Amino acid sequence: EDQVTQSPEALRLQEGESSSLNCSYTVSGLRGLFWYRQDPGKGPEFLFTLYSAGEEKEKERLKATLTKKESFLHITAPKPEDSATYLCAVRSSYNTDKLIFGTGTRLQVFP
Amino acid sequence: DTAVSQTPKYLVTQMGNDKSIKCEQNLGHDTMYWYKQDSKKFLKIMFSYNNKELIINETVPNRFSPKSPDKAHLNLHINSLELGDSAVYFCASSQEVYEQYFGPGTRLTVT
Predict the structure, then answer these.
(1) Does residue B1 carry a pLDDT above 70?
(2) What is the structure's pLDDT at A68?
(3) What are the pLDDT digits (tens) for A11-52?
(4) Residues B6, B22 contacting (CB under 8 angstroms)
(5) Which residues sit opposite B43 in a β-bridge?
(6) Is B10 on the interface with A (CB under 8 A)?
(7) Pairing relation of β-strands A100-101 and A62-66?
(8) From the CB of residue A69, how many other CB atoms can be counted at a distance below 10 Å?
(9) Whether the predicted pLDDT of A86 surpasses 90
């Protein structure tokens, strides 16, 4: 069964303290791994799509990487405005019509 | 311009009532989705429509009925509401199997 596990559940960082969020997945044929950011009371906001192992994508202080079993979202020198819940989702070749989400990592960045 | 919009944003109702949530997207996408996010923030797909045709129907009680009058709209009607239906419901859209874009959510509270 396709599954996505994110860790840690919650992460508290000091402003400027770099760290990484993990997304481990088990899927029958990966057809895309997606990272989303969700602010309280809002819908998930699309960040990145990764399709194959070794691929990397960057946006401002965020960098997403992908291996055959997991993805990392690296946050470099975070700012308080990076505080949000970060969601990872996968699409499998078995069923390309839906995304399977992890439970997210709630990130808090303190000044 | 809002890409994916939902109405209402908040819905408070009593058990046994029937309610509807509306969704519209102006991105020109051909696929639309309904997701349910529970109190633990887990996001799970309920339905998807591609060009007005039902593609995904997860194990959702048949009290939930989606309707797509055209490819820009996907509504969700819920009959005989129960306490366990309380959650945040998100509409999303995508072009084929690419990234999905989410609406702001509808917080449903059943009392």
Answers:
(1) no
(2) 93
(3) 999 999 999 999 999 998 899 999 999 999 999 999 999 999
(4) yes
(5) B37
(6) no
(7) unpaired
(8) 12
(9) yes
Confidence check: pLDDT of B2 > 80: no
Partner B contacted by A96 (CB < 8 A): yes
Cα distances (angstroms) measured from residue B18 to each of A63, B44, B65, B80, B110: 44, 22, 11, 6, 11
3-state secondary structure chain A: CCEEEEECCEEEEECCCCEEEEEEEECCCEEEEEEEEECCCCCCEEEEEECCCCCEEEECCEEEEECCCEEEEEECCCCHHHCEEEEEEEEECCCCCCCEECCCEEEEEEC
Of A29, A44, A42, A49, whose CA–CA distance to A87 is shortest? A44
Is B104 part of the contact surface with chain A (CB cutoff 8 Å)? yes
- What type of residue sits at position B108? L
With tokens 């309920």, the residue in question is B46
Contact criterion met (CB < 8 Å) for A46 and B45: no
Task: Return the pLDDT at A89.
Answer: 95
CA–CA dist A79, B81 (Å, integer)? 42
Cα A61 → chain centroid: 13
**Sign of the dihedral defined by the CA atoms of residues B24, A83, A46, B56, in that order:** negative
* DSSP assigned state of B42: -
Distance from CA of B14 to the nearest CA of A (A): 22
